[in-house]
Structures are given as structure tokens and as C-alpha cells.
Backbone:
């Protein structure tokens, strides 16, 4: 599993069976930085309970920090 950015990483996978013999696969590449997720808009009425789960995969071995912002939009009608 790649874990670096801007560094060429490589892998070698060998499969050997009596039926197909021995096959060796070589893979290499350079990782790119993750892109931003599209914003998720969720709304709920006042004095209502609401919960949700947003699933995403951390592509790195290290722990990441995420930021969740709650914004209130107030409209006045006269």
C-alpha cells in the first residue's frame, strides 16, 4: 500500500501455482495529494434531533485531523 507522496514507490507480487507456473508482477508509481471532498449540505429544522455519518477513507497510514463546520443561516422576513 503506497504511503508517500511525490516519491516513486514500487511493489512486486509473485503468484506461483502448479497450473499456471510462476508469474511476477511489478508495479510502481508516484502518489498524488488527495483532493478535497465536495461539500455535504445537511439541514434540519429548529428543535429537531438529527445525526448522520459521513464515510471516507484515510489513504495514509498516519492519523489525520478533520474539521467540521456548523453554520447557521438566519433569514428575517418583514
Residues:
Amino acid at each position: 500500500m503506497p504511503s508517500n507522496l511525490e516519491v516513486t514507490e514500487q511493489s512486486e507480487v509473485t503468484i506461483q501455482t502448479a497450473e499456471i507456473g510462476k508469474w511476477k508482477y511489478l508495479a510502481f508509481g508516484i502518489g498524488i495529494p488527495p483532493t478535497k471532498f465536495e461539500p455535504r449540505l445537511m439541514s434540519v429544522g429548529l428543535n429537531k434531533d438529527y445525526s448522520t455519518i459521513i464515510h471516507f477513507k484515510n489513504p495514509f497510514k498516519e492519523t489525520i485531523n478533520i474539521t467540521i463546520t456548523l453554520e447557521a443561516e438566519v433569514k428575517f422576513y418583514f
In short: The chain has a mean pLDDT of 80. Residues 1-78 form one domain. The chain is about 0% helix and 25% strand.
